[in-house]
Every structure is written in C-alpha cells, then in structure tokens.
Amino acid sequence: MSHNTFGHLFRVTTWGESHGPALGCVVDGCPPGLLLDAPFIQQWLDRRKPGQSRFVTQRREPDKVKILSGVFEDEQVTARYGGQVTTGTPISLMIENVDQRSKDYGDIARQYRPGHADFTYDAKYGVRDYRGGGRSSARETAARVAAGAVARRVLGAGVTIRAYLTQVGKRAIDRSRFDWAEIDNNPFWCPDAETAALWEEDLDAVRKAGSSVGAIVEVTAEGVPAGWGAPLYGKLDAELASALMSINAVKGVEIGEGFAAAALSGEENADEIRMGNDGPYFLSNHAGGILGGISTGQTLVARMALKPTSSILTPRRSIDALGHEVEVRTTGRHDPCVGLRAAPVAEAMMACVLADALLRHRAQVG
Fold first, then answer.
1. Angle between the 343-365 and 38-48 helix axes, to the nearest 10 degrees?
2. pTM across the whole model
3. CA count, 13 A, side-chain hemisphere, 44
4. Per-residue 3-state assignment (H helix, E strand, C coil) for 143-164
5. What is the spatial distance between Cα 335 and Cα 313, in angstroms, rounded to a whole number?
6. pLDDT at residue 308 is higher than 70
7. Which of 82, 163, 167, 292 has the smallest number of CB atoms closer than 10 Å to its CB?
8. Which range scores top for mean pLDDT: 17-21, 90-94, 182-186?
9. 174-195 pLDDT, tens per residue?
C-alpha cells in the first residue's frame, strides 16, 4: 500500500528522492509498436528542468533521461516502423541527480518546516529524508513528465495538450490579450505578454525579499473525442482532478467554470447544442469538455491552484522532533513560485489520464 502508482490500464509508478542518486518511473500498459526514443522524451523534460531563469531554483540538473527497458530496434523494426518502438512490456525510465547539496538541509534535520511535509512524514513513517524533502520534493515531478511523454505517444498527434500560467500571486492575466504564440516567449508559460513583464517585476521583489507566492495554472486538451471516461466512479473529470491534485503544492483543482459555476444561473451554465455540417457542436464550454464524467468532444479545460513555496528565508515558528518550540529559516535553492515549472507537469498528468482513458474506452466499447 505504498501508493506510488496511478492509472488503470496505462499505469505509472514513480520512484526516487530529491537527493538520492536517481529518480524515475516505470510505465506499464503502453501498447507496442509506438515510436519512442530518449530525444523524444527529453524535449518535454527540458521544458521542466530547473535553472532556466532567475525566477526558479538554480539547482543545475540536466535531467537527462535513460530508457532502461520496454523498447527495441533492429533492421526489421526500423524498416517497418521507422525507428525504435515500444514492445508492450514495462518501460523503465531513469533520470540521475547530479547537483544535490544535502548540506543545505543540515539545520532542519530535526526541525519541522512549516508548510512542508516534514511533520506528517515523520508522524506516518517514523523516519524522513530531510534532504530537499526526500520523496515529497517537487523533484519527483521530473519522472511524471517523462511518463507524460510516453502517454503523448499513446494519444498520437490528434490530441494537443497545453498548459500556461493565468495568475502569479495576486496578478492575473488579461484574457482579452490571450495569445498562444506568447506561451513559449517568456519564462512563465504566459499567454499574455504584458502580464508576463509585470510578473518579472513582481517576482524579482519576492525573490529579493526571500519570500514566495502562489500561482494558478490552466491546462487544456484539444482533439479529445466524445465518449472517453465513464460513470460513476471512473469519471474523466474525477480522474483528472485526482491527477492534478497529486502534484506537489497543488491545493485546489477545478474543471471548466469550476467554483465560478456556483454564481451562474441554470440558463447561463447550460452549454447549448446545435447541429452543424460535421455533427453536433456546443455554443459554450462551461462544463470544461466533460459531462457526466464523459468527454463531450470539446476542449478539456482544468485549472490548478498552487500554494506559495514553503521554503522561505523569513523565520517561521515551529517545533522540532523532540517537541521544542523553534524558529525555522530554510536556506538552499528554491523557486520563489513553484507554479513557474508546474505547466509541463500539468500537461504530463493530463496526458497520462487521457492515455488511460483512451485505452479503457477501447477495452470497453472497441
């Protein structure tokens, strides 16, 4: 009952700690015959890796992935498929840690950092790896991104998944300036260039103060056909909410209008349907592309709220393992806003959920 595995037919088990020799995942249930090599996975990991701007942790990790199992290539395979392919057996992926600084955590070896999982891990297991948070570190999300790359191969080119920041601290984007092209033009995955420039000023001030702020990340999936997901306990929105909530620092998840739907009338909230030349189409998407736990064929829309980074330089009151009251000040290399590197992770979790939904749909209805 270690709960390190998620998914049903497309199953992902992650392993490793922040300051261990390596971390990674095992992906089981991936169909055979899908093109998969390290460079394909690496392009997604490169979007998440630390140290790419002054606004994230300066830990220098190349996040180079190694495929240890589950793929094969010879002359026959290359002639048939065009390169290395999955074999249908478990795919094991490994990412080595090369820039650990465990000495940064010596002072809090017996202290519980407020906002962290130090106290709860100790209460549950009686032992904890205090170096960078051990298993509870966001470093684990690199393995999820690697698994998400495999999931994208299962989904194929017809499904497009994109995540972006819509709010950092108290400042949100102006949706009238939403531009997909801007997402790759700034370090915030922000579709609003003007707001991204203001976030730079905001985060410079936060970083210099040794503090942190939270964020909201929105993730969408286009090209998902109607019919994926199942009632009542296999709802696609429930699976997606669970996957996003499992990401480090996430404290809230909503689908479509989410909590804002409570302020709408029934007339406003209902997504009306008309018949077009290519079949039914919706006049709005308050439901976020899911009705009754089943995809509608519209764009899937989900949002996740991330709390401020708990590792801050400002002393906070806490206790140590012996029950003594202490003040804790966390040093080391930390993100002033964990949301900045959460977009690729949200995409990966969306991809894994959808790959699982595709395989389950295929198994049930053909």
1. 130
2. 0.94
3. 31
4. HHHHHHHHHHHHHCCCCEEEEE
5. 12
6. yes
7. 82
8. 90-94
9. 999 999 999 989 988 999 999 9
